[in-house]
Design a protein that fits this description.
366 residues; alpha/beta; Rossmann fold; Ubiquitin-like (UB roll); 2 domains; six-stranded mixed beta sheet; 44% helix; globular; binds guanosine-5'-triphosphate; binds magnesium ion; ATP-binding; nucleotide-binding; ATP hydrolysis activity
Length: 366
């Protein structure tokens, strides 16, 4: 899974990126469009894997990992400037979800490009850039479609595309992001290749000041943003990136103490991943053994055969049966043998719908 971090300049993207990846990318470099984004990976924390690893003592323990791409700030009005920005935004189109960081912290030492801190305005400004970028793609594509239609190329297909694009164009021209349009699954499928930025699932991260952590003011801001930006493809989170970066530099126990001290219940690192899983409709299933204990990611609703395919296409192709026990039943039973004798570790067929936390052992033959 790849998550792209976008936002106006100087809103704290790289600070958050460092917090998420425990990285050390240079903060406040005022990176310009055209510079390479920071790329880093983070494991998805999973206490079930920690526990299973203690029990099985495997040679290898593997968590799911996510990749974060920290893009340079996108100044207001920049999409209108052309080619370089288009290239920059193509990086943002490669991702599975966007994290849109917006400044909500006051700090005289960090000048705001627009002269004042105004979270709502900034959110709109970046949304506008994303919308203009999508609009640019649509306008170009519509020209091509018209040309094809004149020549009679793939008439039926082009007509369908034209209708969808016309609807998208109208929405964007009235400043409505595509995610709010109620795009049908069929339209989504047809449009997937274009990777529209305003159709991407998006987590808005309000980067608040340290003194606002857990405050009613922060909740109030989140509620106001939610009212305006709510959609089934957006989620709102509140973090203090600067503090999160400090937490990331501490070891487990010290981090816990520090968090208790300032009243942070869940690290941004965990919070964003959990939100992302929920937003993208993902679940984790687990495999265990002496060699490896490992978590895997699949879409909610995946069949056992499909889930096997996430490990190796041979498993999906040659699927016979899956032995399945939920993590909780396994812990209750104490061992796989016990779970088997209790009947909670049982055989399932290829259509079985895998649940989050299922421990699965695939039987296959190729
Ligand atoms: N007070 C405070 N300062 C922050 C916070 N997050 C970031 N900053 C400061 O804001 C400045 C910019 O932070 P960056 O993380 O580099 O921001 P950015 O969005 O990556 O900036 P560009 O890549 O240049 O667009 C730095 O001086 C940070 O220390 C925060 O939560 N609170
Ligand atoms: Mg940066």
């Amino acid at each position: 899974m790849i998550i792209g971090i976008v936002g106006l300049p100087n809103c704290g993207k790289t600070t958050l990126f460092n917090a998420l990846t425990r990285g050390n990318a240079e903060v406040a470099s005022h990176a310009q469009i055209g510079t390479e984004p920071n790329v880093g990976a983070a494991i998805v924390p999973d206490p079930r894997i920690d526990r299973l690893s203690e029990i099985f003592n495997p040679k290898k323990t593997t968590y799911v990992s996510v990749q974060y791409i920290d893009l340079p700030g996108l100044p207001r009005g920049s999409v209108a400037e052309g080619a370089k920005v288009t290239e920059f935004l193509s990086r943002a189109r490669e991702v599975d979800a966007l994290v849109h960081v917006v400044r909500a912290f006051e700090d005289a030492a960090v000048p705001h490009p627009s002269g004042s801190v105004d979270t709502m305005r900034d959110l709109q400004d970046l949304e506008m850039e994303l919308m203009l970028s999508d609009l640019g793609i649509i306008e170009k594509r519509l020209e091509r479609i018209e040309a094809d239609l004149k020549k009679g190329i793939e008439r039926q297909k082009r007509e369908i595309e034209k209708n969808i694009f016309a609807r998208f164009k109208e929405a964007l021209e009235t400043e409505k992001p595509l995610r709010n349009l109620g795009v049908t699954p069929e339209e989504e499928r047809l449009m997937r290749g274009y990777r529209f930025l305003t159709l991407q699932p998006m987590i808005v991260v309000l980067n608040i000041s340290e003194d606002l952590i857990g405050s009613p003011d922060a909740q109030d801001l989140a509620a106001r943003v939610n009212e305006k930006f709510h959609s089934n493809k957006t989620r709102i989170e509140t973090v203090c990136a600067k503090v999160e970066m400090e937490i990331g530099e501490l070891s487990g126990n010290d981090a816990r103490l520090f968090m208790d001290d300032i009243g942070i219940k869940e690290r941004a690192m965990d919070k964003l991943i959990n939100t992302c899983y929920e937003l993208l409709g993902l679940i984790s299933f687990l495999t265990v053994g002496e060699d490896e204990v490992r978590a895997w990611t699949v879409s909610r609703g995946s069949s056992a055969a499909r889930a096997g395919g996430a490990i190796h296409s041979d498993i999906e192709r040659g699927f016979i049966k899956a032995e399945v026990v939920s993590y909780n039943d396994f812990i209750k039973a104490g061992s796989l043998a016990q779970a088997r004798s209790k009947g909670t570790f049982r055989l399932e067929g290829k259509e079985y719908m895998v649940n989050d936390g299922d421990i699965v052992n695939f039987k296959f033959n190729v």
